[in-house]
Amino acid sequence: MFIAVGVITLAIATFGFIGTFRESALLINIYCGILTVVFLLEVTATSVGIYHRREVDGILMQTLNNSLQRYPWNSNLQESVDFMQIELECCGVTRYQDWEDVFAVVDLDSGNLQA
């Protein structure tokens, strides 16, 4: 997807360059129109993102919590979660206690242990 966006951006920039190089008012006006449309699309995408923020937050929280539950058995997921926590300098989804449900805590001081 990023490659496609890059190609489109390059094409638009090239179109503007050609219009400027040829000193064509028509090409420059078309270029300005394209930039206006791109700007309006960006504003629209931002507005939609802000409007649906709570919904996206809920989906993201649910997905991250499900990922923590699958963490012990999925090595690819382990690498991804570990990388994310190292880079973001955080632990768990919202706090470090999120890990308490993932790994059972063994009480070594209880008298029920046998050798």
TrEMBL record:
Keyword annotations from UniProtKB, A to Z: Membrane, Transmembrane, Transmembrane helix
GO cellular component, one term: plasma membrane
Bilayer topology annotation: Multi-pass membrane protein
Membrane-crossing segments per the record: 26-51
Alphabetized InterPro entries for the sequence: Tetraspanin/Peripherin, Tetraspanin_EC2_sf
SUPFAM superfamilies reported for this sequence: Tetraspanin (SSF48652)
Pfam families recorded: Tetraspanin
Locations listed in the record: Membrane
Name of this chain's protein: Tetraspanin-6
Organism: Culex pipiens
